[in-house]
């Protein structure tokens, strides 16, 4: 089957060699593939007005949300408010998928 059989359908390859942050689709919700090397982190930042889903595909990430740090293993999914400080830090080479949706509140 091709995408032309399903109008309005977009397809992305999560196994493509991506480094850093790659936006998978245009428009909403924002969908990001995140690749971090062991020891690499992203400084604390916010995504105001967004609800975020963070799915760790592989590796290990310490995800700091405000004053709390969650140690994530492959297959774990976290949903959180983007108004708080967010900082992922890879403790192993890691791949994650993030969906940033406009908050309904």
Automatic annotation (TrEMBL):
Residues 8-20 have a biased composition (Basic and acidic residues). This is Cupin type-2 domain-containing protein. Residues 1-21 are annotated as: Disordered. Signal peptide: none annotated. Pfam families: Cupin_2. InterPro entries: Cupin_2, RmlC-like_jellyroll, RmlC_Cupin_sf. Residues 35-96 form the Cupin type-2 domain.
